[in-house]
Amino acid sequence: MKPKATLKKISDKLQISISTVSRALKNHPDISEHTKQKVKELAELMDYEPNNYAISLRTNNSKVFCIMVPQISNLFYHSFISAVEEEARLYGFSLMILQSGGDPAIEIANLKICRQNRVAGIFVAIGTATKDIQPFLKMDDLDVPVIFFDKVPSFQACNKVCIADEKAGTIAADVLLRNNKKNILGIFGDPEMSITKKRLDAFSQKIAEKGKSIQLKTKHALTAEAARKIVHKCLTPLQKIDAIFCMSDEILTGVMKAVQELKLKVPESIGIIAHSNGFIPNLYSPEISYVETSGHKLGKLAYNRMSACLSGSTFIQELTVESVYIEGGSL
Amino acid sequence: MKPKATLKKISDKLQISISTVSRALKNHPDISEHTKQKVKELAELMDYEPNNYAISLRTNNSKVFCIMVPQISNLFYHSFISAVEEEARLYGFSLMILQSGGDPAIEIANLKICRQNRVAGIFVAIGTATKDIQPFLKMDDLDVPVIFFDKVPSFQACNKVCIADEKAGTIAADVLLRNNKKNILGIFGDPEMSITKKRLDAFSQKIAEKGKSIQLKTKHALTAEAARKIVHKCLTPLQKIDAIFCMSDEILTGVMKAVQELKLKVPESIGIIAHSNGFIPNLYSPEISYVETSGHKLGKLAYNRMSACLSGSTFIQELTVESVYIEGGSL
DNA sequence: AACATTTTCGCAAACGTTTGCGGCAAAGTA
DNA sequence: TACTTTGCCGCAAACGTTTGCGAAAATGTT
User: Could you say which nucleotides of strand C lie within 7 A of any protein CB atom?
Assistant: First the structure.
């Protein structure tokens, strides 16, 4: 890009020094109001745009964050990204969004891109295959805060923001119980992810509290297609499943596909509840009841945490956002 | 970010000059193989990462593209973005994705962000409210190529890549005719957008070729909700609509919602066909037949065009990608 | 041996901006 | 009047990298 106006050009025209131009544009107290006004007017007239590369090189400080996700097509990430973008825009930051495809090798390559671009901080949802987060923790040594969100490392001490998984699990189970469901199929995500473990444990525990009168069968699905197959396999005349819990939007799409294929009536023949951001549940009639796991609040929280880290906060925090139940017509 | 290794540190350790280190890492022919090897080994040992800010400042050349879209939740953009990201990654470019919310004022602010970050080029899907594209064309004066895609300016001479709208419209109409649909409701997008005009004209013309035996009613919907209401209004016992064409995924979601609410059987009572990237049609059973308007090929094409512009090509091109019909079970 | 060419480096300037420090003039204080 | 403080600027260096040009040594040619 060929910039048209620089500090030097302004200083030449006004017969003042470059440093004065710089200070005037920054409202530095050492510069007189008269000089400030002249500088600002001319800068505006000349469409002066600061060169962020020069600024970042000089200040060793960039105004770019990276958001790294497995895939941008995951609906949960939309609201997260938009929330972070809103906040970032307020403070003059830009976002670089990098996809990893859930591949650890690409995550490493993405970290390299982050280092080369000297990003100020990284928000990352790791892939399910990511076991070693040392490369991420090393970014902290370079003073680049890393905030994990959604799929976060289970045991390592690191900055994390996530949905309150236990609560989300408990709410869903609670709703099913309140709707007198007796034979429940719970389809959860990747069993190795902490979000899955937490939600499953809370869900099962809540169901178990009701005693032997409630049957719960739990399965795991990593894709919509896997979830679809589980439904075909479990919903046989011998097994009177009366409700299905879907731990994610993706699982919900697979379940709903199977329900339609089996021509089951919702909620008459089968009840459905999901963890969702709301987009998919609203595609169906009656609308699917869901426990909202919106990324929006999470994005705001993650941004706050990032700001704290950039301001010098060095301690590790794991923050959570509560879920809320949104009633549709599927139970 | 606090970099650990710099050219200077390497040059200090090897007792050679900074410029030699730089040239060695770039395989400059003036540097001996012996020196190159020593430099590269030490650079790797020290985890040297070039500082892109310094490079961009010195070379007046950045390796960042901007993709500007109204909203990342639009499914069409996922494949477009992923395609551009794949190509960009191959050539060492990063992507900055900015949302405009379809607001022209935010588009202007985003262009400012692009200038401040000295982006190498911009891929932009403008919002429906954007009338004045002069601010975009001005980026060309700054040697920042702008490639319009999806929602593109109608009349201005500018670089555009889009789906072959006429062909997409014709294919959909052709499919409906081949399935002997006699009473068709066509729901199109914003009537002011060129993609809408082109698809509607081609669609209508194809239907009209069949003579008076085919009834076509066309409507416009800017949201899924508007599409839903149109279906409720048009599908009365007096109006024997036997097929609905949906010009986008968003319109399709509204139409399918209404179809479910009205408890219509697809395809027995009503046929459905849409322009789509495939995600939404696959959520239903039977799957919705669609004319694929995938952003993936478009992304590759857009990237090619961008490369040509960066290599010095100054003439204006409007490039198109053909659509393909994907049969589901909805007709 | 003298001159020309090639190889392989180093110096220094450039990019655009920020910022510490000092200089000078004006105003304030004893 | 002499000294101190304040206001308002400019100089110069810094950031990390690239690159033009020149210098010195080695090699080649007459």
Answer: 7-22
Q: Are strands B183-188 and B324-326 parallel, antiparallel or unpaired?
A: unpaired
SS3 A160: strand
CB contact under 8 A, A1 and B119: yes
Which residue's alpha carbon is at the shortest distance from the C1' of C18? A58
Q: For residue A303, give both structure tokens.
A: 């941004």
Which of B73, B256, B285 is nearest residue A283 as measured by Cβ atoms? B256
Closest residue (CA) to C1' of nucleotide C7 is B30
Binned at pLDDT 50, 70 and 90, residue B3 comes out as low
What CA–CA distance (Å, rounded) separates A60 from A299? 26
Tens digit of each residue's pLDDT (9 = 90 or more) over B80-107: 999 999 999 888 898 999 999 989 999 9
Nearest CA-CA partner of A257 in A289, A225, A220, A223: A225
CATH code given to domain A165-293: 3.40.50.2300
- Reply yes or no on domain A63-162+296-323 having CATH 3.40.50.80: no
A173 φ, ψ to 5°? -65, -45
CA B4 to C1' C22, whole Å: 33
Q: Are A288 and A281 in contact (CB under 8 A)?
A: yes
How far apart, in whole angstroms, are the C-alpha atoms of residue A89 and residue A84? 8
Which residue, among A7, A44, A52, would best test binding to B if mutated, counting the most B CBs under 10 Å from its CB? Answer: A52
Continuous segment of H or E residues that includes residue B239: none
**Average of per-residue pLDDT across B139-151:** 89
Q: Is the CB of B54 under 7 A from strand D?
A: yes
Quote the tokens at residue B72. Answer: 């990342």
Interface test with A, best of B250, B266, B285 (most A CBs within 10 A): B285
Distance in Å, residue B289 CA to nucleotide D12 C1': 70
Can you give the pLDDT at residue A32?
Answer: 92
Q: Is A190 left (phi over 0), alpha (psi -120 to 50) or beta?
A: beta
- The full set of domain ranges for chain A reads 7-50, 63-162+296-323, 165-293
Would you state the structure tokens that stand for residue A218, as one six-digit string? 């739990």
Tell me the CATH number of domain B62-163+296-322, given options 3.40.50.2300, 1.10.10.10, 1.20.120.450, 3.40.50.150: 3.40.50.2300
